[in-house]
Design brief:
Length: 196
């Protein structure tokens, strides 16, 4: 493999393929959960080391709320998306993993947000993703939602009226595009009674 010092390349071409390979081995019962946990911890440490090396811009583009949906404890992908969005000048409020939809609505009601990013890694947590997005659309009709994670795809995103990003780079591109679009068209965010 060609050597690179770029933190994003290291993440995308070495760290992520390694944890995905661990997932494949786990699926084929070649390894067990403790090994997956150890690999996940190593991945989290790698992200912590690389994150400060992503070129940071001042937060000026607006606030994005991120969370992994209820029932799902996977947060490595969401944390990588968070790191990249921050490096693109977005201010991130991270509610963490296994987050109930009510908690998300409550957080959105308290502050003005530009978009929401939701992660789901398991097929079993897709209903929680759908419920959360429906609730956000109902309470904040103009607030864009970007979804990602191994369990979701473009088709699912279209079905629930969300934007789909296949990876962190794509998430930042979509956020940038939404930022341009929203700033040139109408004021961001949107609940009628709050989130002003
Ligand atoms: C690491 C891991 C774990 C770790 C998680 C640690 C952590 N802190 O996250 C631990 C060991 C805790 C774990 C637990 C479990 N896991 Co697990 N896990 C994985 C594994 C191996 C890697 C996931 C990962 O981190 N990938 C690396 C990141 C960078 O990739 P990513 O998440 O896809 O993120 C990228 C994109 O998807 C996107 N993205 C992600 N989030 C977001 C959010 C937004 C807003 C946007 C725009 C984009 C975006 O951008 C990211 C960066 O490019 C996967 C296998 C796999 N191939 O995915 C299984 C996997 C997800 N796990 C699985 C399962 C079943 C479980 C358990 C139920 C196991 C068990 N028997 O207990 C539990 C779940 C408990 C629960 N309630 O959630 C299954 C899910 C199967 C399914 N289809 O439903 C998988 C697919 C493994 C398998 N093949 O069986 N797991």
């Amino acid at each position: 493999m060609k050597k690179s010092n770029d933190p994003l390349t290291i993440m995308n071409e070495i760290v992520i393929p390694a944890i995905r390979e661990v997932g494949d081995k786990y699926e084929h019962r070649e390894i067990y959960l403790p090994q997956v946990i150890a690999a996940a911890e190593a991945t989290t440490i790698a992200l912590k080391i690389l994150k400060p090396m992503f070129s940071a811009k001042d937060s000026e583009k607006g606030k994005i709320l991120v969370a992994t949906v209820y029932g799902d404890v996977h947060d490595i992908g969401k944390n990588l998306v968070k790191a990249l969005l921050e490096s693109h000048g977005f201010d991130i409020v991270d509610l963490g993993k296994n987050v109930k939809s009510d908690r998300i609505i409550e957080a959105l009601s308290g502050e003005k947000f530009f978009a929401v990013g939701l992660s789901a890694l398991m097929t079993t947590t897709l209903p929680a993703m759908e419920r959360t997005v429906l609730l956000i659309h109902r309470e904040f009709p103009e607030l864009p939602v970007i979804i990602g994670g191994a369990a979701v795809c473009e088709e699912f995103a279209q079905k629930i009226d969300a934007n789909y990003a296949k990876d962190a780079v794509n998430a930042a591109k979509i956020a940038d595009r939404l930022c341009l679009f929203l700033s040139s068209n109408f004021p961001v965010s949107s609940r009628r009674d709050s989130n002003k």
